[in-house]
Amino acid sequence: MTVTRQDSPPNVTALSVEISHDDGTAWRPVELTPDGPQWTAKVSHPASGCASLRANASDDKGNTVSQAITRAYQIG
Questions:
Q1: What pLDDT does 16 receive?
Q2: Parallel, antiparallel, or unpaired: how do β-strands 38-42 and 31-35 relate?
Q3: Under 8 Å between Cβ of 19 and 38
């Protein structure tokens, strides 16, 4: 996952990602590992179904973003 801003690279102060396997009824946190300007997300899920994703980020200039994608990808 890469967080970008139009005017310059952001100084991300907070980032969270969650995953849901029931169309967003229940959310579980996703393990994130910083990798330079990017983050690697480690997810686990059932053998079949769909995964929904929700991300929240903020930077040192007070900018925030929240994005949810229901049924982001098919599993299995």
A1: 96
A2: antiparallel
A3: no
